[in-house]
TrEMBL record:
NCBIfam families: cyoE_ctaB, PRK04375.1-2. Belongs to the UbiA prenyltransferase family. Protoheme IX farnesyltransferase subfamily. It comes from Paracoccus tegillarcae. One of its GO terms (molecular function) is protoheme IX farnesyltransferase activity. This is Protoheme IX farnesyltransferase.
């Protein structure tokens, strides 16, 4: 761990640097999927309680991000994509990030228990532990299955939102989990294909590093096939309906076709055209998840009317 004195003389940390430690982009996904899980649940919550629940889930997600940046500072300093983060850039000391992550974790779990229920709070505590310890400290540096197993951490928020409203788990919340869980690997593997040097330099055993780029392309297509049935199955549950099914059918067809194109790509041709197909697939993956959960919201609103 870097000595706190190493940051003497570095630019003074600004409020935005501490916000950046919380990974606000990732947090926005956590907030949105948790909100959808809470909203579509078959139990009405008081609007203020619902707002507080989503707020504390977001705080827990931010705490996970701070703990991840604390532990991964050595990797972030090597990777081009992450060199500008507050710790490798020298604006925030690692002990500060650790203290922030631990403090926010405690506050988020305690307040969620008081605002919603202790089952949801325990679920949030487990999610923080899973992301910070199981994924960040263990899986990420030890196995090419890091993003596969570790992806569960990002898939828990809609289940936590559902648990805030219902106090439990159901087939609907499990399928929302599965939607994110099976989406995560092709999403990150597409990124790894065109950010090819970062993981090599950092020594992170991403699939592109351990099994090669051709194998990664095959895995992306395979996971797009595995993902589709779970996404469509969700449409036949109590939270689904024709609007969601129509959106899911189109998105999964596009996702499978995109995975097929990536699998058939020649690496030399991909490098010559600047990995345009891979970058388009990565962007598609962002819309894919957002639009699935947005469709659940719209379906719920239409059903309520």
């Amino acid at each position: 761990m870097a000595d706190i004195h190493a940051y003497e003389g570095a630019p003074e940390a600004q409020f935005g640097d501490y916000v950046a430690l919380l990974k606000p982009r990732v947090m926005s996904l956590v907030v949105f999927t948790a909100f959808v899980g809470l909203w579509v649940a078959p139990v009405d919550m008081h609007p203020f309680v619902a707002f507080c629940s989503v707020l504390f889930i977001a705080l827990g997600g931010g705490a996970s991000g701070a703990l991840n940046m604390w532990y991964d500072a050595d990797i972030d300093a090597v990777m081009h994509r992450t060199q500008g983060r507050p710790i490798p850039a020298g604006r925030v000391a690692r002990p500060e990030a650790l203290a922030l992550g631990v403090a926010l974790s405690g506050v988020a779990v305690l307040m969620l228990g008081l605002a919603a229920n202790w089952f949801a709070a325990g679920f949030l505590a487990f999610t923080i532990f899973f992301y910070a310890v199981i994924y960040t400290m263990w899986l990420k540096r030890s196995t090419p299955q890091n993003i596969v197993i570790g992806g569960a951490a990002g898939a828990f928020p809609p289940m936590i939102g559902w648990a805030c409203a219902t106090g439990g788990i159901s087939i609907e919340s499990l399928l929302m989990f599965a939607l994110i869980f099976f989406w995560t690997p092709p999403h990150f593997w597409a990124l790894a294909l065109f950010m090819k040097e970062d993981y090599h330099k950092a020594g992170v055993p991403m699939l592109t590093v351990t099994h090669g780029r051709a194998a990664t392309r095959r895995h992306i297509f395979a996971y797009s096939l595995v993902l589709a049935p779970f996404a469509l199955w969700l449409g036949f549950t109590s939270v689904g309906g024709p609007i969601y099914l129509a959106v899911a059918a189109v998105l999964n067809l596009l996702f499978i076709l995109g995975g097929w194109r990536i699998m058939r790509r020649d690496e030399l041709a991909a490098e010559q055209d600047g990995y345009t197909v891979e970058k388009r697939y990565f962007r598609l993956s962002l819309y894919y998840l957002f639009l699935h959960f947005l469709a659940l919201l719209v379906q719920s609103w239409v059903g309520a009317w």
